[in-house]
Amino acid sequence: MAGTNREKENELRSLYERYAPLVHARCRSILHSEDEAWDATQEVFMKLHNALPSIEKKDSIYSWLLSTATNYCISLLRRRRSVRFDEEIHSAGSTDHVPHQEKTLLLKEVVRRFLSPWDRKIREVVMYAYFDGYKQEEIAQLTGLGTSTIRKYLTRFKRKAAGSGLTFEEVMYG
């Protein structure tokens, strides 16, 4: 990407205006915090500033941003090392009294734990499919992977989730 600093700044500003809401939504879905999601969004765009000259196709910027956001947020979660539980939930023997939103947050934490050991590409496919709602053909376009590879990755993830003792639907949808 050749050009003056002003041209580079304008391009980055344009990309931020176009993609920041999407990156923020991805970060918020992983981190469950508005403030942390905005901080993560800023970090991703700082990384984009450095990486922009090496990104060959403009079409791949969106995929690069979402992949980088996912990896950045998962790294943040790993550094936390512990799950924050509501004291009432932690001390209770049953989760029957837990509000639906709280159950959803706990189950999403389970999903993050399932995703953290997986290869970056598998995590990306799972996030596109189950968090962002993309179809396999759309994921293929975003990632450059074949649909058979995407099916294989999703099947592996489903099997690992099933082996946890939870049903796949419980893990993904609460």
Descriptive keywords:
9 helices, about 170 residues, Arc Repressor Mutant, subunit A, 2 domains, Rna Polymerase Sigma Factor, Chain: A, mainly alpha
Summed up, what is this model?
This protein has 174 residues and is mostly helical. The protein contains nine helices and no strands.
**CATH fold label of the largest domain:** Rna Polymerase Sigma Factor, Chain: A
Low-confidence stretches: 81-98
CATH superfamily of the largest domain: RNA polymerase sigma factor, region 2, helix turn helix motif
Structural class: mainly alpha
Helix content: over 70%
Radius of gyration: 18 Å
pLDDT average, as an integer? 76
Quaternary structure of the protein: single chain
Beta-strand fraction estimate: under 5%
**Global geometry:** globular
Number of helices: 9
Number of domains: 2
| Main sheet specs | none
Distance between the termini: 45 Å
Question: Mind explaining what this structure looks like?
Answer:
The protein is mostly helical. It has 2 domains: 1-81, Orthogonal Bundle (Rna Polymerase Sigma Factor, Chain: A); 97-174, Orthogonal Bundle (Arc Repressor Mutant, subunit A), CATH 1.10.10.10. Helices cover 74% and strands 0% of the residues. It is built from 9 helices and no strands. α1 (5-31) packs antiparallel against α2 (34-51). The radius of gyration is 18 Å and the shape is globular.
